[in-house]
Amino acid sequence: MRKVAIVGIGHSRFGRRAEVDIAELAFESIKAAMEDAGVEKRDVENVTLGSAGGWYEESLPAVVVNEYAGFHNLPTMRVEAACASGSAAVRSAYLSIASGESEVALAVGLEKMTEVDTLTSVELMGRAGSYLWEFENYGMTFPAYYALYAVAHMDRFGTTQEDLARIAIKAHHYASLNPLAQFQKEITLEKAMNSQMVSWPLKLYDACPITDGSAAVVLASEETAKKLSDTPVWIKGMGVSSDSANLSKRDDYVGLGATVDAARKAYAISRTSPQDFDVATCHDCFTIAELMAYEDLGFCAKGEGKNMIREGQTEIGGKIPVNVDGGLKAKGHPVGATGVSMMVEVSKQLRGEAGPRQVPLKKGNGLVHNVGGTGHYCYVTVLSRSA
Amino acid sequence: MKLDSGPPTLQSRRTLSLRFNLPISKTHQFWDGLREGKFVTTRCTDCGEVSFPPQADCPRCMGSNVEWVDMGTDAELVTFTYVLVTPTSFVQNDPYVVAIGRLGQGLKILAWVEGSQVERLKVGDKLRLEARSSSDGAPYYVFVTAP
Ligand SMILES: [Zn+2]
Asked: A120 — contact with chain B (CB < 8 Å)?
């Protein structure tokens, strides 16, 4: 396997983007990533699009996006790993370079979720499990799946609704420093605790919003990366895992088995451990998901996630700053774009270009944790300043 | 052309309504059993693996010889949630309570919860599975709380 680096990053503004269609939205990130990398269209040998799809009118988004951007006759496809589709796209581009097939490849994450009404969007996500046994008769929703985890975690470890609210407050704080984030305002504990109950005990402010957005990264081989960039960000390893479609098949509901397994693989491949990171993005589609990720990634022991947030250990200056771009919770969660957005954020941090939300760089490593569905898929990617 | 505030958009005039015919020929025994108030699932006769949801092929040994066995109806509440914001196809319903319960043999099952204690659920509560029939005759099942 050849070494692979991120040499270009692009990121659209996240939010309600009714003024652009999917191709225009993807183009914003593609153009920015290619300019950042200093590559031309003729240099790009592979385009992979991560998009779960279903919310927008196009059935074949990869070719629609490629046609708009003027990519012809390239190997391309749309990949789906639910909310981890973006990481899946990066993995596909990564493998095309690591295998020696390509020198330069583009991974694009995209979702346009606000072209349908909100409850239809809720329905599309609720069907993301085992349809006949969870949705047909029981109308499960994405918040409901995570609420099942929240109730079990609170019962077992004494995690409180206030602990979860503090994760939302942190997310909104950092989003207010990120001009590309959907939400630009801080929130108070009172506001979070008094927000509308969605699926008890999860409230509106425990949940990520419905978001339009795109992000893109240009990947290159070691030889090409060194020519293109003074600040390549190396992909040191991707750990990938999955879990049952049907939640009732899982052993327990206080953590995501797919995260534990993907993290174990990622640490082994990259020869790192949970203490080796300056920054992490954790998949916080719901506040409980971020809290469980602290534990499942090994930033603390199982059951101690609540202490991490109470002590501020996941803020800038703490043990491991998490989601200092606002996270899915407040930056927004355009499903297929999220994994690529995380790669963009951690690359920015490792390049020292994150402005007011820059973390101190001591170890030179960052971690991207991207979950698909309710722990159905998990991708853990280790990024580093050093090859 | 939609003329409300915000950027101009064209609202599509073509709508898409999806209704799927769900194949159950290999596991119809489960749904037939429900109509008689019984809960049965598959057990692999090659390796003994009991599966729920029922499946015609064994996920453990990949054998395709299964028999139908009684699942029991006594369950313990593993986790639950009160669903207040419901999807489009459930907007006619009142908010509902969903739980995962563990049956005697260790199988787990997800269903709505009904009964007098539904407002006061806690992990570990005793529940009982009961078969139900929807207004249009479709079989389903719920947990019922102990009185
Ligand atoms: Zn078997």
From this structure: yes
Q: What is the pLDDT of residue A119?
A: 87
* In a domain? residue A18: yes
pLDDT of residue B4: 58
Contact assessment for residue A236 and residue A272, using Cβ atoms and an 8 Å cutoff: yes
Instruction: Closest CB to A139: pick one of B96, B100, B123.
Output: B96
Q: Is residue A11 part of a domain?
A: yes
Considering CB atoms only, which of B6, B85, B93 is closest to A18?
Answer: B6
Inform me whether the pLDDT recorded for B1 exceeds 50: no
Closest CA to A39 of A194, A225, A307: A225
Contact of A123 with chain B, judged by CB distance below 8 Å, is answered with: yes
Number of domains in chain A: 1
How far does B94 lie from chain A, in Å, by closest CA?
11
Using an 8 Å CB-CB cutoff, list chain A residues near B90.
139
The model's pLDDT over B87-143, given as tens digits with 9 standing for 90+, comes to 989 988 899 999 999 998 899 999 999 999 999 999 999 999 999 999 899 999 999
Query: How close, in Å, is residue B114 to chain A by CA atoms?
Result: 12
Task: Give the model confidence (pLDDT) of A368-384 as tens digits.
Answer: 999 999 999 999 999 99
Spatial separation of the C-alpha atoms in residues B29 and B41, rounded to whole Å: 8
- Sole residue written with tokens 């009172």: A190
- Domains in chain B, please, with CATH? 25-71 (no CATH), 73-147 (2.40.50.840)
Reported residue count of chain B is: 147
Per the domain annotation, does A317 fall within a domain? no
Whole-number pLDDT of residue A122: 86
* CA–CA dist A12, A29 (Å, integer): 6
Average pLDDT, chain B: 94
Q: Is A283 a catalytic residue?
A: no
CATH code where residue A13 lies: 3.40.47.10
Q: Which of A341, A339, A366 has its CA nearest to residue A352? A: A366
Q: How far is the CA of A7 from the centre of ligand 1 (A)?
A: 49
Catalytic residue among A11, A83, A153, A378, which? A83
Domain membership of residue A304 (yes or no) is no
Round to the nearest angstrom and report the end-to-end CA distance of chain A: 13
> Which among A333, A369, A376, A378 is annotated as catalytic?
A333
Cβ–Cβ of B93/A18 closer than 8 Å? no
A6 CA: distance to closest CA in chain B (Å): 35
- In order of A74, A270, A336, A340, the CA distances from A63 in angstroms are 10, 34, 16, 19
In angstroms, the CA A236 to CA A179 distance is 29
pLDDT, mean of residues B34-57: 97
Question: Which residue ranges in chain A fall short of pLDDT 50?
Answer: none
The residue behind tokens 């699926």 is A199
